[in-house]
Design brief:
The chain is globular and about 55 Å long. The protein contains six helices and 13 strands. Helix 1 (49-61) packs parallel to helix 3 (135-147). The longest helix has 16 residues, at 93-108. 25% of the residues lie in helices and 32% in strands. It folds into three domains: 3-77 and 133-156, Nucleotidyltransferase, domain 5 (2-Layer Sandwich); 78-132; 160-257 and 271-275, ATPase, nucleotide binding domain (Nucleotidyltransferase, domain 5), CATH 3.30.420. The protein has 277 residues and is an alpha/beta fold.
Length: 277
């Protein structure tokens, strides 16, 4: 294996920017290069093509990002999430895959046939947590990385590393996990220690801190019964912890951004998405 493969590229792809962090070494990786590249003309909500075009050009024209092992994180703008009801009648991986595709098709229509799916394993009787990404996005990502003489090792939806990192904070059985990106909120409702509902919401105009309590109330009316949980665990690397509207009725735990040594939380928070939030 070439010595260059010891260097890794942590990559985050979002509608408005590409985030790149190159590290050297495995046991104690050192940051040797970092950059944030703006995506011009992001266009329609959820459109990933401008971001992939910007990524391909960046990798092809800048030698710092070539010949590397690449781990990519996809913005929640580009990923659909769904909780799939558990079924005792599903006994094989093929049956589960068909069941998941059918569940997404009921919500999103024929376009769901062109997506790639991943399903998180759960306890017997618990809903499956599924994510879907456009196959064309993944194909173009792999091609862009290959053109840069690099190897794509993993592609991860933004929610998963942030949620896994937050597990210690998710001690209570009834709470909300909230992930904040520019112009988007992802809400995950946990009841009885199990995933109960997931939803993704574009936000614009008023600050997300103002909109969040209203969205939580709406989601509870759609999916909850009885008394709504008032505990929030918030992953918002680029936001300073601040009071929410109606803050006196919420118990809020803010997760600090995950950054490498030498990064500053005040100026380098946008890199947290590439590093696992």
């Amino acid at each position: 294996m070439s010595p260059l493969w010891r260097d890794r590229l942590a990559l985050a792809i979002a509608p408005e920017r590409i985030v790149l962090v190159r590290t050297h070494g495995r046991l104690r990786p050192q940051v040797v290069a970092k950059s944030i590249v703006a995506v011009p003309g992001t266009g329609n909500e959820g459109s990933w093509q401008p971001a992939l075009d910007t990524l391909a050009q960046t990798l092809q024209t800048d030698a710092r990002w070539q010949g590397l092992a690449v781990n990519a994180v996809l913005s929640n703008h580009f990923v659909r999430y769904q909780l799939i009801p558990w079924s005792a009648q599903i006994t094989s991986a093929e049956e589960r895959a068909a069941y998941v595709r059918a569940s997404f098709a009921q919500v999103y229509g024929d376009g769901a046939a062109q997506w790639t799916y991943a399903v998180s394993a759960t306890r017997r009787g618990a809903a499956w947590f599924a994510s879907a990404v456009d196959q064309a996005l993944l194909a173009q990502l792999e091609d862009a990385v290959g053109q840069a003489q690099s190897q794509l090792r993993s592609v991860t939806p933004h929610l998963m590393p942030a949620f896994n990192r937050a597990r210690r904070a998710l001690k209570e059985k009834n709470l909300w996990f909230v992930q904040v990106e520019p112009h988007r909120l992802l809400l995950l409702l946990i009841l009885g220690g199990r995933w109960h509902a997931v939803s993704s919401h574009p936000v614009s105009g008023t600050p997300w801190q103002t909109q969040l309590p209203l969205l939580l109330e709406r989601e509870w009316h759609l999916h909850g019964e009885g008394t709504m949980p008032r505990k929030l665990v918030i992953s918002a690397p680029e936001a300073q912890p601040a009071a929410l509207d109606d803050a006196g009725n919420w118990a809020v735990q803010w997760l600090p951004p995950l950054l490498r040594p030498g990064f500053s939380a005040s100026t380098d928070a946008p890199y947290a998405m590439a590093l696992g939030a």
